[in-house]
Amino acid sequence: MIGIFDSGIGGLTVVKAIMENLFGYDIIYFGDTARTPYGTKSSETVKKYALENTEFLLSKGAKIIVIACNTASSVATESAAENFDIPIFEVITPAVELSINTSHKPCIGIIGTRATIKSGIYKKKIKEMNPHARVYSKACPLLVPLVEEGWLEKPETKMIVKKYLHPLKVRQIDTLILGCTHYPLLKNIIQKKIGKKVNVIDSSIAVASNVRAFLEKHQEVDALLGKKGRCGFFVSDVTEQFEKTATSMFKRDIHLEHVKI
After folding, report:
1. Are residues 82 and 109 part of one domain?
2. Does residue 107 carry a catalytic annotation?
3. Which of 27, 135, 149, 193 has its CA 20 to 30 A from that of 214?
């Protein structure tokens, strides 16, 4: 079983991408809706949450873990790898690799939570792969709450996205990394506001491709994963908006199981 966790709704974009890239694989998802957002929490708190979430998914039969949260990926991946002897995937490296391969200038913009941007992890990884790349970052703390509230098409959301993207737009970036798995739910607005010539990188698609490539090369791990098309959704707090968003994304009713971590 492939275990995936996020602070809330955003990780569903990763679930969907993995479903499309690895059709029929069993998946278990945990959305930590009771403790969202992670982007405003301290690094130590996020590490604690990430380890607890991983333990929960392992207890449910997960054999590999996907950290479908940029904030947790930026501060907790190393800690998770030290504590658990299983393949662990994060969403940052795949997005960086894709941005480097597709940026022509290269001039890359990153948007994310305060914690992700403050960590500097994206800029560090980009510079390691291409020291000549120009990198510009912008924290967008209001976007996760807007997505969690379902304000995906509100005029206020469009105005806020435009304001956040303006500093990156004037830098004439040619590639924009969505440094939060909530942001693909706003991708249409983001693309429109940043400009159609800018390549927008969706980390959920990038990490799904990485997981598939890994399993193709490691058949011994692939053999451990169930392939009956089962998918379980667990949350630390059941919210009406989560159910609405999940149903809309997967075009079917999604049963959420409430658990305490």
Report:
1. no
2. no
3. 135
The dihedral formed by the CA atoms of 238, 250, 39 and 87, expressed in degrees to the nearest 10: 100
pLDDT of the residue at 245: 87
- Report the C-alpha gap between 73 and 37 in whole angstroms: 14
Number of domains in the chain: 2
Q: Which domain holds residue 36?
A: 2-90+205-258
* CB neighbour list of residue 156: distance below 8 Å, 6 or more residues apart: 146
What's the pLDDT score for residue 244?
86
Q: Give yes or no: residues 16 and 144 share one domain.
A: no
Select from 157, 180, 203 the last residue of a domain: 203
Q: What pLDDT score was predicted for residue 241?
A: 84
Ranges in the chain, pLDDT < 70: none
Query: Which one from 69, 107, 140, 231 is the annotated catalytic residue?
Result: 69
Q: What is the dihedral of CA 176, 182, 184, 188, to 10 degrees?
A: -90
Residues 67 and 118 in one domain: no
Distance of CA 97 to CAs 137, 177, 243, Å? 17, 11, 33
Out of 107, 140, 180, 231, which one is annotated catalytic?
180
Active site residue 69: yes
